Amino acid sequence: MRAADLVQPYPTVTLTTPAIEAARILADADLPGLIVVDNQGRPFAVLPGTQVLRLAVPSYCQDDPALTHLVDEAAADVFVRELGDRTVRELLPPQPHELPVVPPQATALEMAALMARTRSPLVAVVDGALLGAVTLHALLDRVLPL
């Protein structure tokens, strides 16, 4: 099985997309991450949902999980407001990593190895232009025995 057999259309965001909008796209479509594209529509990065949470969850709660118990429920339920006016650019790690992009001919093993190596929940499939993505879920559904 090849990437071309598993690729699905996939939503994208740009570096200037508001972070809160990216979070809504993730939540509304129940996605593991988003493809960030440049001005020409080429994949620039993959933004895992956990990176959105990294900026939404106050750093003091990440540094000391015991403090999360001290926040009342009403305040805890709106932590995502911490995203404020931030953009997708601010959600990305500062150091460029290997881009999880494959051609349509990539095998299941090639995609799995790339996902594992880059810790990405999806790979973008590109053949000149972005064709879509293969998610970890879709890949596992096809390779696991019934």
Walk me through the structure.
The protein is built from eight helices and six strands, in the order αβαββααααβαββα. It has a three-stranded mixed sheet. It has a three-stranded mixed sheet with strand order 4-5-6. Helix content is about 40%, strand content about 20%. The model has no long low-confidence stretch (mean pLDDT about 90). The longest helix has 11 residues. It comes from Hamadaea flava. InterPro entries: CBS_dom, CBS_dom_sf. This is CBS domain-containing protein.
Low-confidence stretches: none
What name does the CATH topology carry?
Answer: CBS-domain
Structural class: alpha/beta
CATH architecture descriptor name: Roll
Separation of the first and last Cα atoms: 16 Å
- Cα Rg: 17 Å
Q: Please indicate the percent range of residues in DSSP E strands (runs of 2 or more).
A: 15-25%
Number of domains: 1
Instruction: Estimate percent helicity.
Output: 25-40%
CATH structural class: Alpha Beta
Can you give the mean pLDDT?
88
Summarize the SSE layout with pairings:
Blueprint: H1 3-6, E1 12-14, H2 19-29, E2 33-37, E3 43-48, H3 49-56, H4 59-63, H5 73-76, H6 88-91, E4 101-102, H7 108-118, E5 122-127, E6 129-135, H8 136-143
Parallel strand pairs: 1-2, 4-5
Antiparallel strand pairs: 2-3, 5-6
Give a nutshell description of this structure.
With about 150 residues, the protein is α/β, with parallel strands linked by helices. It has a single domain, classed as Roll (CBS-domain). The chain has helices at about 5, 20-30, 50-55, 60-65, 75, 90, 110-120, 135-145, and strands at about 10-15, 35, 45-50, 100, 120-125, 130-135.
